Records
---
Amino acid sequence: MLIVPAENVINWKRPPWATLGLMLACFLVFVFYQSDDDRIAEAVLDNYLASDLVDLESPVYENYLQRQIGLENASGMTDRLERFQRAVKKQDTVSQAGMMAFDMSFYRYMQENRDILWASAERARWQELREPIHTQTLELSSFRSGLVPAELTPSTLVSYQFLHGGWGHLIGNMVFLFMLGFTVEKALGIGRYLIAYLLCGIVSGLVFTAFSLGSPIPLVGASGSIAGLMGMYVAIYGRQTIRFFGFFWVYFNYFRAPALAMLPVWLGKEIYDYYFAGATGIAYMAHAGGLVAGAGVILLLGRSWFQVRESFYEPEQEAQDQRFTASYAQAMATLGRMEFDLAKAQFGALWERYPERLVLLEHLYQLAKLRPDLPEYRARTCELMNEALRQKLTERLVEVWQEYLAKGEAHHPLAAGDHNRVLFACLRSDNLKLAEKAFERLRSSGDSLLVEEACQLLADEFDKRQMSPKARHYRSLLGGPAQAI
């Protein structure tokens, strides 16, 4: 059974850099840091076969497996015992060596019971042959940087998350890391996402250690951290109904369910498999620990350290565009029916929600222009002028200003600052004629400070163009002596 969230699609305009970085880190660690593992494992096997350890350990190993099955009720060992017995029957020493040489629990069992397993001479011979092979085995990356419960260290609680047992293990984990990671990264932001990811991996490792106390078998892989992402994913959505993809033996399909409802399903599956799936080599309790840690990070700390960003719950740009198009079409239809008050309310609501879409303000301006005697026309004019200035639409700014002078100035005059903005915009666009017109309006407003500054600017501009009469004219308005250039 496999159930994974499928609510979101990735937006490549905003790539999940942290998730891609984690994937790259795991890949580089596997390719470079773990690249020598195959050579070490082959050397261990060759040295094991070159000795007579197969003859010494084979009867002990069969007895060890039977003991595990009987005394400790380790039912998962049944398949291993059957495979080993087939290898013994076929005299397949390579298969026998492969099972015994790397079984660290078996090695510890022999160390603890060597005095009763062999006579003195055999025991000394076994110790002489086995010790260097065991030391060589410990050079594998899984023992150097993996999480070994019997030798737990703070560093391995982090390093084990980036190791993998093979290409299949790596690729499988990276697929799930990508599927879950880009959504959680979008929700938390890069920094908090990375902290939460590593924290879930640490808790996952501690839970695994708690259920494997004293075990010499190392834990490697990102699956505990990825389980944490699954827990965070459903906790972020909480009771919201979202889409999942389910694979149930031969049947697969999408279905919708409350997000948090999946947490007990996933958790129950991991606990069930831990007790009943047998020796599969999968760290089920590490997964369970990651799930609980991920959900806890959001449910307990979601209002403080790991608060979900508000932008996460906003619809994607495509969905926003679709919503805007539908609402805009509705407002235009209202306008077409000449229901101006209703259209004004609809465009106003859209403008508040989509302040970056200037076309909405244009509609509000045109509707306000129907009644130039009302204050709303002046307010929309000033708003549109400011927006045009912000977007450097000088021609539109001047056009709106001139239109208001003709229609609304007699009812509600513009402020001196409004004329001053037009003057500055005209100077920047090298339109001195309109700049002078704006100055005359500014001058009539009675704001002496702005008039003085505008006079100085105009005089300087005309000086640059060697238009001395004009320059003298504006300097004379300053009250000082005119200067010939």
---
Amino acid sequence: MELNPFDTEQIGIKTLEKSLMKTRSARSIKIGLPKETSNDERRISLTPGGVSILAANGHEVIVEKNAGIDAHFSDSEYAEAGAEIAYSAEELFSKSEMIVKVAPPTKTELGWMQPGQILLSALHLGHTSHDFLKTLIDKGVCAIGYEYIKSEDSEFPIVRMMHEITGSMAVQIAAHYLENSSDGQGIMLGGISGIPPATVAILGAGITGEYAARTALGYGSQVFVMDNNLTLLRRLENALDRRIITATANHQYLSTALEFADVVIGAAMTEGERAPCWVTEPMVEAMKPGSVIVDTVIDQGGCVSTSVPTTHSNPVFRKHDVVHYCVPNIPSNVARTATYALNNVIVPYLVELGDTAGIEDCLWKNTALRNGAYIYKKHLTKKGLAEQFEMPFRNIEMLIASQI
């Protein structure tokens, strides 16, 4: 297969097509892709290329009109790939066995969900409510969350893809808000000959922190990375050839680093839990006027005490003369790239679902999707969610094995 080196976004999907279009699934699934309506969400979970793979495997894909428009995928592209175009979300929900979307269902969408449907979407732990979970449980929906999908190698493939994008974008965003046109300090991240670079403090040495550090180093910044996990700090130091400065995220080091930082990237998190709040309001007060905070974990509660969620249409606010950028879904601003990333992870799972006898069989055989399920057979299957919302909890392996 000859590839155009400049057509980079297509390489992954062509490789995916080559490996997945050879077989036909054992059963057909009706998969619905609604248009996202919440929080400036511009992504969609499947590309036309992904739809063509699913159609080749015998599945029916229903795409709501204009669902891919913000990621620059047209209805005609989806139709040519084999999708049916639905002219209303309600029609799509009524026809589909499985709903695949990016953001969690809205209150209206929850009302359209059918008993026994499968939901594959993000959960957004920082904004989940008791009523949301109870509605899904009462309807008997099998809900699988992007944040929970974990493969046998302990990787979170969808989360990792989005974190790579988020980390890279966070530094790009910060550079913009340091400019005079954004009422910033009027400095460059990288500096020039004879003028020191800006200082970037990254909180968290996970995937988001790593890609933020890589991007900041690419700009030429001085980069500090702080975490309480020394193993992660060592790994990142080695991966980046010790070009970063690392420190444990205790009060002393955090306070000192934030006083000198031009940019703070908040990326401290633990998978499946609320983000730890490392930065206090007095620390923010002590920061330079015009410095920038990008809190990338605001969808999990944020790791800066002064952070509150913002939107792509109104992304920043100032507090203590520090610019705060707290948009929960940063990858949505590069919707086409993010859609390709989602598609390349999700399509193989959907093909595998079609190769099994049903969702129960699939969850038993597929570790990643089983880990991803947070509601199954009208039971909450994640202990952390059960404790947070004081709801009953059942182990999913036991539910499947007992055939309840």
